[in-house]
User: What shape does this take?
Amino acid sequence: MTISISDPHFEDKTKAIEVLYQVIDPELFVNVIDLGLIYDLNMETEGKIIVTMTLSTPHCPMGEAITMGVENALSAAFPGKETEIILTWEPAWDFTRLTEEGKRQLDIMS
Amino acid sequence: MSNINIAKAPENYAVLPFYATAAFFFLLLSLLLFISAGELGGHYFHPRLLAIVHTATLGWGTMIIYGASYELLPVLCENDLYSSPLALCSWMVLTAGILLLAPSFWFFSTGPVMITGGALVLLSALLFLFNTIRTAGSCRAYTAQKCFMISAAVWLVITASIGLLLAVNLRYPFLQVNHLQILKLHAHAGIAGWFLQLVTGVSAKLIPMFLLGKSTKKGLLTTAFILQNAGLLLFMADGFTIRALFYGLLIIAGIICWLCYLYDAFRSRVRKAIDLPMQHTALSFICLLLSVIMIPFVWHDGKWGVLYGTLILLGWITAIILGKTFKTLPFIIWNQRYKHLNGKVNVPLPKQLYSSPLLKFQYGSYILALLTLCTGIITRHHLTLQIAAGIWIVTALSYNVNVLKIIFHKR
Assistant: This one.
């Protein structure tokens, strides 16, 4: 996920990404940003953050822990805002969504 | 949150009792092996061996497979578990059944206690089947993995039903055919129906997930499902005749299709490192292949029959459990203790909930225990068998320590 510098919410979105680095997928031991699980951050609605995200495996038993982690992290960073999470399997997550850091942490084959 | 079902994990009481009880039965099984090491070189139809086999298949294998299945069914069926209270009931009934059945075999006390034990095991199998069908039934997507889960549960009911008939027959003989022939059908319905099909279904989902690999060859799994079931159905219908070798070949072809699917996922994996729990799994496949190679020798009873059973129960099944416990249990506990804290504060990782050096030790002692036991069975050397049983106790103790460390983990 990239944020344009001309985005009116650039500062808040950068802050959101910063805190989402703290949310770890407990199975893969990598944060949700480096895993590429976060597809979109929408802050257009006043007092609301809408996160469109996926999971590395649909119906993973850790899914709730990950979405809860995203919610917790954003609620703490933006106390006045409500967080809404939209889970999607389209497009499905695959390894190409990993950042270089994510690949390094997973010791992925080149 | 969107209304997509992310399959909430079932209640802990539906899962944890199975892990704790299985760990206890694994230790008990090792102690029983130690006490009766001398019997391992003989015929499998020996009261003590029957007690050991039922402790292994029900107390150890089936017990933990129930627990893991209740945790993983939502993943496979993409739906919440139908009933956690029903899962707990199946644990109570299964535990009670084994506690009656195993001593009955040990002291060869045929009659009401053994029959009641068999009936309770059958009841637990029916509860498991009902929960599986209700969980899988409301799922729209067809997957071979889901079919394997249901067929495995059906085969467990068949296995337990035949077992109950055999228990009745020991006290009130009514079967027209040889008891041992029916016993072989009972054993193979359990091995190739219950254990094989369940392991096939679950591993086809989990192994690609753990390795970050995937196979597009879904047809291999469908073929595996057809071949494994066709072979077993023909075997059950025709009995232990010379044609059984052909039926065995069908099942073996089904195993090969499944392993090819897993190999394809393994080859396409992006994660280089294979952790210790996955190494246990790799070892389990070697034991399965060795036991398959042994099938022609099983025709002749005696030590080869015992070796075949050992490779299946203490090789294939046990290696899978010893590894997969540490791929599931820490996550279950972590979910309970830390899920709500994720993203708020620094939390330990699930793998930090157990001792990795102890797991490494367990892996080494397990390999040594299995090799020594197989050597003892082949050579019929009493001291070797006794040493092997001692190493099994060490393995079981190290497993128990780690399992208890996870279950009683405090924040």
Remarks:
- The two ends of chain A are 22 Å apart (CA to CA).
- The domain at 10-96 of chain A is CATH 3.30.300.130 (GMP Synthetase; Chain A, domain 3).
